[in-house]
Amino acid sequence: MKKLKKVLLVLVYLVLLVVIGVFLFFNSLKPDYAGKKTLHGLQSVVNVYYDNYGIPHIYAETETDALKALGYVHAQDRLWQMELLRRVAKGRLSEVFGEDLVKTDKFFLSLGIDDHSAETVANLDRQSEMAVLSQAYLDGVNEFIEKGPTPIEFYLTGLDKEPFTIEDVYNAVGYMAFSFAMAHKTDPLLTSMRDKLGEEYLKDLAISSDTSTVWIKNYHKTEMDSLGSDITASVSEALEKLPIPQFIGSNSWVIAPEKTKNGKVIFANDPHIGFAQPSVWYEAHVNTPSYEKYGYHLAGVPFPLLAHNRDVAYGLTMFENDDIDFYYEETNPSDSTQYKTAEGWKKFEYVSKTIKVKDGEDVEFTYSKTQHGPVLNHIAEQISGERPVAMSWIYTREKNEVLNGLFGISHATNIDEFKSALPNIHAPGLNVMYGDAQGNVAWWATAKLYQMPDSLSTKFILDGASGKEEPLRYLDFSENPSAINPPWHYVYSANNQPDSIAGMLYPGYYLPEDRAKRIVQLLDAKDDWDKESASEMILDVTSSVNPGLITELIKLFNVIPLSNEQLVQIDSLQNWDGHYSLKSTNPTLYHRCEYFMVKNTMEDELGTEQFNQFLATHLFKRQIAWGARMEKGKWWDNINTTDKVETRQDIVLKSFADAWNSLVEDFGPDPNQWTWEKVHTLEHQHPIGQVESLRKYFNVGPFPVNGTREVINNLAFPYDSTGYYKVNSGPSTRRIIDFSDIENSISILPTGQSGNPFSKHYKDQAEMYVRGEFRKMMMNTEEIKKSAASVLTFKSQ
Question: What is the distance between the alpha carbons of residues 387 and 393, in angstroms, rounded to a whole number?
Fold first, then answer.
C-alpha cells in the first residue's frame, strides 16, 4: 500500500509539473506590454504607453525610432496575420494549409502581384524618406521575429518564421488593390449569360448606370478643360478559400463647419471589410517632435491607411471603378505559340511557377501572357476551351507608386499637400475622404482611369485581336471625380455611382443607392451635427429602399386565399419603416421573400451554379430593387413550365408562399418566433478555428446582430438556400473625429487590438462592437501617460 501511495504521489507530481509546464509555455506566448527591451539601432529611448484596450501610444525623438518600435509592437500582436497576408501574392498559402489552397495560390501567382512588387523594389530609391521609414518598420518586425516568442499558430502549422522584406509590404498593398475582385466575378459571368440567353435578357439587368438613383456629386470651383462562367467559378472557388478578409465597400461622410453645432469639421468613416479574427486594422498612435498620427495599419504596412491628428483626418471607401478588363485572344492556327494583335502575330510569354504544398509534392505550373496580361485558361482545371481569355489589370500595368502615396497622405499637413500625394495611388480605386481643422472637407476618387471607345461595355469579355477595344487615353488626375468644399457643406461616399467623369459615366461595380440615399436624407435634414448625433448615424439600421419595394409588391397580392396569420404579417410589412432590430420579425420575412423572388425569377434560366455565382456580385445587389419594379420582361417566365407564361404577380405570390413555408419549417407556425436575432449572426473566424475542436479558442462569437445588407450599419451576408444570414462583412472600424474636441474622438474595433489568442486584448471590444459602443482615441499626452495600463520601454543595444 505504501508503495502504491508513493507511485500515486509521483504521478500527481508529474501531472502537476506537466500542467505547470504547459501553463508557463502558453504564458510565454503572450505579448509583452510592459517592461524594458533592447531594439537594435535606436538613436534614443522609445516609450510605448499601452491604454486599456492595448493600443500603443509610441513616443520617440525621431520618426525612424518610432517606426522601428511600431514594427516590433505590431508584430508581437499581429505576426500571424502579417505572415498570411504576405503569402497571398507569393502563392505560398498551400505551404501552410496544404493542397486545398493550390488553386488559390495558382490564381494569385497568375495575377503577377509578386512579380510587379519585385520589379518595383528593384527600382526603388532606398535612400528616400519613404523607403528609410519602411525599412525601420521592417527592422522592428524582424527583431521581434528573432527575439520574441513564436505565436501559437506557427507551432500548430509547423511553420518557420522568416524575416520580412519591403517586397512583402508591396505584396500586402497589392492584395488590397485586388481584393474586392468584382470584375472577376462579374464580367465573365455576364458574357456567359449573354451567350447563353441572348441580349433580351440582359437589357433587364441593372448593368449600366441608373439615372434615377442617388449619385455622388462632383464639385469644382472652376470648370475643367461557356468560358465566362468557368472563369467566374474558378475565381469564386479561389477567393472562398482565402484565410484573410477581402475589402468590400464602406461609408464615409465629412461635415463642414456650416452644418455642425460647434462650427468645426466632423469626420466619420467605417470601411466595410470581410470579418475575420484578428480584424483587419491595427491601431497605433505615433508621436515625435515633428510628426504625430493616430492611425490604422494594414498588416505589414508601415503607413496608416486611415488616420488623424490635430490638423487633418482622412479615411477610405472603395471607389468600385472598373480597372480590370478581359480579352478574348486569337491563337495562330498554324503556330500555337502566337496570338493575333492589330500589328500582327506576337509570341505568347510563358511564366513558370512552383508551389510548395504542405504534406504533399511541389506543384509546378506554367501560364501564358499576352500584351493584355495573364491568360486565365488552364490556371484552374475547370477553365478549358480553345479560346484564350487574358486579363488586363491597371495595377500591374502601371508604375507602382502606391506606397509613396500612402506615405504622402500620412505626412500631409494641409489639404494641398494631401491632394498632391493622391495621383500616386493608381490602384486600387479609392474614395479618399478628407477633413481638417481649418474647416475644409473634400472627397477625391483616386485611380488611374482610362477612356474606352464609345458604346463599348467593359462588363463583357472584349476582342483582344482587333485593336479596336483598347483604351483610347488615360485620364489626368484632375479629371477624376471629386468635391472640395461644396456649397451643400458635406461630402460622402457609399460606394455608389459617381457623377459624370470627363463627360462620361465611368463604368464600375457600384453598389445600389440604399446607403447613399439614407446618408443624404439624414445629412440634408440637419444643420447642428455633433459627435453624438454622428455616432448615432453611423449605427443607423434603417433601409431607405426596402419599405418602398414592399409597398410596390404588396399591390400585387390577392388577399382572399391568405390565412389570418399571413394577413397580419403582410399588414406589418406594409407598415414597416425598414428598421432592423433583433426582436423584429419583418426583416426575416422580407429577406426570405427577397431570396425566393430572385431565385424564382432567375434560377430557371441560369441554372443553379450560375445563379449562385450571380448572388455573389454587386450586380445582384443593384438588381433587387431594379428587377422587382420591372413590370414586364422575359425573366418573369419560368422556362421549365410549358402550360403558362408566368408574370411578375405569379412570381411574387409564389415567392411569398415559398418564404412562408420555409419559415414554418425552420421556426414553427408562430410568426412571432421568426425574429431577426435567430437568423442574423456574426462570428469572427480565425483560420485555425476551422478545426472544430479549436473553434472556441480562436473564433470570436457568434453574436446575434442587428443591421443588414445595405443599411449604414452594413452588417452584410451572402444569400443562399439555408435562409440563415451569417454576417461575413461589415464595418472594420467605426470612427468619429470631431475637430472641436479632437482629444475625445471615438472609435471601435470588431474584436480587439491583438491577434494573439493569449492576449487580454484578443476580443475585449467584441461585445462593445455588437452593442454599438465606442471608446476614446486618446491623444492627450498627459492623459495617456497618467492613465496608461502599462509601459514598454525600448533602448538601443
Answer: 19
pLDDT value, residue 498? 75
Q: How far apart are the first and last CA of the chain?
A: 59
CA nearest to 279, candidates 723, 777, 788, 747: 747
Single-letter code of the amino acid located at 406: L
Strands (E) across 441-553 are located at 441-446, 450-451, 462-463, 473-474, 482-484, 490-493
Question: Hey, is 708 helix, strand or coil?
Answer: strand
- Percent of the chain, pLDDT > 70? 87
Residues 6+ apart with CB under 8 A from 304: 284, 293, 295, 296, 297, 406, 410
Q: At 389, list the grid cell.
A: 481569355
* 628: helix, strand or coil: helix
pLDDT for 545: 83
Q: Give the pLDDT mean for 170-187.
A: 74
Q: For residue 494, which of 659, 714, 701, 680 has the smallest C-alpha distance? A: 714
Strands 725-727 and 680-684: parallel
Count Cβ atoms within 10 A of the Cβ of residue 98 and give its class: 0-12 exposed, 13-18 middle, 19 or more buried.
Answer: middle
* Host H or E run for residue 406: helix 402-411
If you average pLDDT over every residue of the chain, what do you get? 87
Q: At what angle do helices 648-667 and 586-615 cross, to 10 degrees?
A: 110
Note whether 430 and 319 are within 8 A (CB): yes
266: Cβ–Cβ under 8 A, 6 or more apart, which residues? 254, 255, 260, 435, 529, 530, 531, 534, 736, 737, 738, 739
Q: Detail the DSSP E strand segments found in 256-310.
A: 266-274, 282-288, 291-297, 306-308
Sign of CA dihedral 536, 539, 541, 543: positive
d(CA 39, CA 69): 8
Tell me how many degrees the CA angle 446-450-451 measures, rounded to the nearest 5: 135
Percentages of the chain per state (helix, strand, coil), in multiples of 5? 40, 20, 40
